[in-house]
Design a protein that fits this description.
The structure is a homodimer.
Chain A lengths: L15 H8 L5 H9 L5 H7 L5 H13 L3 E5 L7 E5 L1 H4 L2 H16 L5
Antiparallel strand pairs in A: 1-2
Chain A binds a DNA duplex (20 and 20 nucleotides) through helix 3 and helix 4.
Keywords (chains A, B): DNA-binding, Transcription, Transcription regulation
Protein name (chains A, B): HxlR family transcriptional regulator
Pfam families (chains A, B): HxlR
Chain lengths: ~120, ~120
DNA sequence: CAGGATCCTAAAAGATACTG
DNA sequence: CAGTATCTTTTAGGATCCTG
């Protein structure tokens, strides 16, 4: 059980396809993004959504998304800390891509093995 | 210099998103697919298209695509052998996804860093 | 020409334990 | 609660040499 992602480096970093791939790269990335598409989520909520996703990998995925400007994070003052991750307007641009991934996958599943 | 791909495993193998991700998974995958979208290509032609892609990795990528029924391969009789890889009708279903990857990447590049 | 066979390295992912 | 720190394992990718 895992979740697949786009994780390699780019031929030319300025290629739009590579930029888009970077956004959905890494195991669990699309599942985390799907959760965030539904609204802000805390670290724990994101973990609960994907029980077999470790804290380490979730942290890595979130750091990557934040670094790309696709997700922002706010922390509640006080204690214990509460976080709230949410998509930026840039991150929302990924919705059509996720939808197309779903549609294409459905189409592939509906096709016969080859030809 | 490389090319990024979706390369992880799936949470649930029957999830359409995972199926679509599997198709574009692995470094160089989208570039090889783009070449094939333009018509049948031989092994050498595919290598020439991506000079820094090794024979080993190209072989792996093609095997994966063939295994998924997205690409078919024919060999010329005689010697030396000539191969011709081409997209199956199933493989052609990936075109809208590649286009969406491009569009989304363009949109991301056009956005400001965050928010 | 079109790969196969090896070996090696570099990342990514996972498990576990611990901290502010 | 929200992570960080380590360590180990896994896997992808690259380099080189060889074959039908």
């Amino acid at each position: 059980m895992g979740h697949q992602t786009v994780t390699w480096d780019r031929p030319t970093a300025d290629c739009p396809v590579e930029v888009a791939l970077a956004a959905i790269s890494g195991r669990w990335a699309t599942l985390v993004l799907r959760d965030l598409m539904r609204g802000p989520r805390s670290f724990s909520q994101l973990r609960a959504g994907q029980p077999s996703l470790s804290a380490k990998v979730l942290t890595e995925r979130l750091e990557s998304l934040v670094a790309q400007g696709l997700v922002s994070c706010s922390r509640s003052p006080g204690f214990p800390v509460r976080t709230s991750y949410s998509l930026t307007s840039k991150g929302l641009l990924l919705r059509p891509l996720l939808e197309q991934l779903y549609r294409t996958g459905e189409a592939l599943l509906g096709e016969f093995p080859d030809h």
